Amino acid sequence: MSISLTPEQISNLARQINEAISGLTNIEAILEATRADLERARNLEQRANTAKSVVMLSFLSGFLHLYLFPEFRMQHYNGKNQSTRYNICVHG
Description:
The structure is a single chain. This protein is mainly α. The chain has one domain (7-77). The protein has three helices and no strands. The longest helix has 42 residues, at 27-68. It is elongated, with a radius of gyration of 26 Å. It starts with 6 loop residues before the first helix and ends in a 15-residue tail after the last helix. The model has no long low-confidence stretch (mean pLDDT 81).
């Protein structure tokens, strides 16, 4: 992302930001009111990252299993194991 502004535009933007900030009141109440939402968002992000890691590990485990155990690979590709399912449960 690239933003190109003239010095005049930067000054104007800074003035607008200062005006907006000076109009804020009761900032502590706003922070307190949004604290639970922020914590929930952080927890959801952590759970998503954990789920992503579990999926990647599951994929790598299956990949290694196919190539380290030729008998499984042959069984898999000969159609004897066509209902392979992966159940992933993430607790958080």
